[in-house]
Amino acid sequence: MIKLEKVTKVYSDQEGPAVDNLSMEIKDGEVCVLVGPSGCGKTTTMKMINKLEEPNSGTIYVDGKDISTVNSIQLRLDIGYVIQEIGLFPHMTIADNVATVPREKKWPADQIRHRVDELMEMVGLPPKIYRQRKPADLSGGQRQRVGVARAMASDPPILLMDEPFGAVDPITRARLQNEFLRIQEKMKKTIVFVTHDIDEAIKMGDKIAVMRRGKLVQYSSPDEILSSPANEFVSKLVGKNRSIKRLHLIKAESVLDSGISLTVKSNVPVEEVEKVIEASYIGVSMVVNGSGSLLGAISLADIREAQGIPTAGEICQPIFNTVDTGATLNDALSVMLNYGESFVAVLSTGNVFAGIITLGDLLELVKSDAA
């Protein structure tokens, strides 16, 4: 889908090339992450793909066409672009922001409205609630979701993403990453993703292009980057604790314990809950409703404090140490550390309780990988 052949970019005010003789191919439907220190040429490379910058030499092909022969505006209308600062139009509603490119392409109004609603639902911003709001009414994470929806509005085959989640807090960032990976599983876009964060690169990429001083140092899968760094620079970039970083590559749903023995229905008497807790390896019981959605958790201390209350649903406490099934094991570890808990509850669509992952489970995986 994207091919760079011996591409070089030189700026007159810089000593060496910003991008130096770069050759690489990105397959259809692949997420390629460009990673490296500031000034390594990753953003310049991205800008050359949609002709915001012109190379001094070399050729860039998009879908088999040499882009130097393609009209710049037409090329950009067929490429989605997401940046860290998001760049939403403050005076326009969320719906109008998302509709920007379809309007430029003169789509019919009904088609635009349908597409906007579809994308807002997809990124977790129900149109009935958010359609008429302005960007100033949204949190940073919500604005970032709008930016992603806008980039995808005309269904472009290619997305360029420049530090798209860099401006939000770590927990929101992990959620946005997971949501985007979930969307990508359905959409199968070809994505070029720029980041300076090797952990994000490992989590998000099918392939990682490590760059330094404008040159491509290594172009491999995340697993290969972790197991076989090409040189000392890549090894230092990856850092120590590679076994822990490998947790980015494993989805929560692949290792969780179903936790059936830990769950009780909300209408179960407290006496039965007590027996479940005493046999529980995490010291609490999970309380679910008739549909299996998680309502909360109960400890023995909760039961003692709520004497005389007959059922689980009446005394269960909210639980915040949760991840969804699409989260990585590194996300699970981060949540455990953030909340000071030794486990996370894993939830599927509709808040349905899917199981448990414990800190012990993660340590075992890290030990076996290190061995």
Low-confidence stretches: none
- Order of strands in the sheet with most strands: 6-7-8-3-9-10
What would you call the structural class?
A: alpha/beta
Distance between the termini: 39 Å
The CATH H-level superfamily of the largest domain is: P-loop containing nucleotide triphosphate hydrolases
Mean pLDDT: 89
Strand content: 15-25%
What is the count of helical runs? Answer: 17
Work out the radius of gyration.
24 Å
Number of domains: 2
Q: Can you give a write-up of this model?
A:
This protein has 17 helices and 16 strands. It is of the alpha/beta class. The protein folds into 2 domains: 2-249, P-loop containing nucleotide triphosphate hydrolases (Rossmann fold); 252-370, Roll (CBS-domain).
Summary of the model, kept short:
With 371 residues, this protein is an alpha/beta fold. The protein contains 17 helices and 16 strands.
What is the topology?
Layout: E1 2-9, E2 19-26, E3 31-35, H1 42-49, E4 57-62, E5 65-66, H2 72-77, E6 79-83, H3 94-98, H4 100-104, H5 109-122, H6 127-130, H7 140-152, E7 158-162, H8 170-187, E8 190-195, H9 198-204, E9 207-212, E10 215-220, H10 222-227, H11 232-238, H12 242-245, E11 263-265, H13 270-278, E12 285-288, E13 294-298, H14 300-305, H15 312-315, E14 322-324, H16 329-339, E15 343-348, E16 352-358, H17 359-370
Parallel strand pairs: 3-8, 3-9, 6-7, 7-8, 11-12, 14-15
Antiparallel strand pairs: 1-2, 1-4, 4-5, 9-10, 12-13, 15-16
Helix pairs in contact: 5-7, 7-8
